[in-house]
Write a structure and sequence with these properties.
Pfam families: BPD_transp_1. This protein is mainly α. 76% of the residues lie in helices and 3% in strands. The chain folds into two domains: 69 residues, no CATH class; 177 residues, MetI-like fold. The radius of gyration is 23 Å and the shape is globular.
Length: 289
């Protein structure tokens, strides 16, 4: 099957799944002896499809007054996407850098590094966020210097600290994956060939192993992004961010939920598939030294 056809089919199936999931609350609105209300579910599906076809007429309640859904919805979606993609990029870069540094250590010290990472991973993410906010407040009280804005006020937006908090545990997950990928790459024949040619360990790591492992790590990061989505609501709540999760929690209807999730899903789907196509072309360079 051609790649473009396969991706198109994946996109259509994913969008249909989101639409079907968006109507699920209506399925459990049954009363009496029946546990499921299939007729109400079908009605909700019709409303969702109608809303998608007539999206320019949709409104939501804003302080007791109807307000057009578009373009109002674009702002929280773009805000949350920026935080999510920025955090993923930070996690990707830091985890790769930490892996390279760890691989340069003597092998007897690598186990201690991994043990520290496992212990840090066991800490609750909310605890880490509070700790970072507390440090900024403490530092400001002692020095009168505000390192980073840590909460949104009115129309003001914060980016760096929420991204860092959202990136903490993905960084740990990607670090563990990256470490395993680097170890696997170092066992391959092209690495032995490079060593026989006199190529230094740092050159092998920074050029050949880094390239191949980074491509594999990107493919593995698809699983990590689902973990980040589950933490996005916590981050938006703690930093008073009016992103897509806060919007959907305040204006929860089948139509608004479905459209919001679709607007969030489509850019991520396109980003991953475009980047995957580019990386596959890069990977075709092979393992030649």
């Amino acid at each position: 099957m051609p790649r473009i056809l396969e991706v198109s089919l994946q996109f259509i199936v994913a969008c249909m799944g989101i639409i079907l999931v968006g109507a699920i609350p209506a399925l459990f609105s049954a009363s009496g002896e029946s546990l499921l209300n299939f007729s109400q579910y079908v009605t909700a599906l019709k409303e969702i499809v109608k809303g998608l076809m007539e999206y320019d007429t949709l409104t939501y309640d804003w302080n007791g007054r109807p307000r057009n859904l578009f373009p109002s919805l674009f702002s929280p979606v773009l805000y949350s996407l920026t935080l999510l993609i920025g955090a993923l990029f930070i996690a990707y870069v830091i985890s790769t850098a930490l892996t390279i540094i760890t691989m340069l250590f003597p092998e007897r010290h690598r186990g201690k590094t991994k043990l520290f990472v496992y212990i840090f991973e066991s800490l609750p993410d909310i605890f880490i966020v509070f700790l970072m906010q507390f440090f900024i407040i403490f530092f400001y009280q002692k020095t009168d210097i505000l390192l980073i804005n840590f909460v949104t006020l009115s129309e003001e937006r914060v980016y760096l600290l929420p991204m860092l908090c959202l990136a903490i545990f993905p960084t740990i997950q990607l670090y563990r994956l990256s470490f395993l990928l680097f170890e696997q790459e170092l066992k391959k024949d092209y690495v032995d060939l490079a060593r026989m040619k006199g190529v230094t360990k740092s050159t092998i790591l920074f050029i050949h192993v880094l390239r191949n492992a980074s491509i594999s790590l990107f493919f593995q990061s698809k699983k990590v992004i689902w973990f980040m989505l589950s933490n996005l609501f916590i981050i938006e709540y703690l930093f008073n961010i009016f992103g897509i999760t806060r919007f959907l929690s305040q204006y929860m209807t089948p139509v608004l939920f479905t459209i919001g999730v679709l607007l969030f899903f489509i850019p991520i789907f396109l980003l991953y598939n475009i980047t995957e196509a580019v990386l596959k072309n890069v990977a075709n360079g092979g393992e030649s030294i």
